[in-house]
Amino acid sequence: MDTAIWIIIAVIAVIAVLALVLLLLRQRKARRRVQAEQIRQNASQQVSTVRHREAVAEEADARARQAKAEADAKAAEAKRLQEQARHHQGHAAESRHEVESEFARADKLDPDVRRTGDGHEGHDPAGQGRHEDQQQPGVGGHRPDPRSHVDPRRDQTPPNAR
Q: On the CB side of 90, how many CA atoms lie within 13 Å of its CA?
């Protein structure tokens, strides 16, 4: 009989161990469920924060796209203005050439402008190129004094070069 008691004690011990293991497994599952629920609650609380951050990011992206569009528009405007400036500079250069041609023509016609040996022109400071029949300036004559003549070509620097 002694063996039967030991067998019964062993079976009871195995059942107790199995019951203890099952109890521990159930408690572990319950703890995991609680922990999972806490994580879900925590995550659901962060959803609003994430949505807010996404909205801020979308707004920043929209502002960046708008700024880029404005920059592109300004670049196009700058390019258009630069083309317009080139066009005006071309016209100004043509006008300058025409004016200089007119000055050269006037210098060729003006008897007070003498030509030097190297082809340069200048005003006759002493009035030596004058004819005797010319009237003196300031005495009812129509011609200005060539010595007081201010050549407008002296200050012909383009406005953007000043």
A: 6
Alpha-carbon separation of residue 128 from 62, 64, 77, 138 (angstroms): 79, 75, 58, 18
Q: What CA–CA distances, in Å, run from 77 to 29, 81, 84?
A: 69, 6, 10
pLDDT per 10-residue tile (average), the chain, 162 residues: 90 97 97 96 91 96 97 96 96 95 91 67 49 43 47 54 50
For residue 119 the two structure tokens come to 């082809």
Structure-token match 């003549």, residue found: 149
Q: Which of 153, 96, 147, 148 is nearest to 125 (CA)?
A: 147
Of 153, 159, 158, 155, nearest in space to 100 by CA: 153
Classify 115 as helix, strand or coil: strand
As a whole number of Å, the CA-based R_g of the chain is: 52
Stretch (H or E) spanning 104: helix 2-109
Distances in whole angstroms, Cα of residue 123 to Cα of each of 19, 55, 107, 126, 150: 128, 79, 9, 9, 10
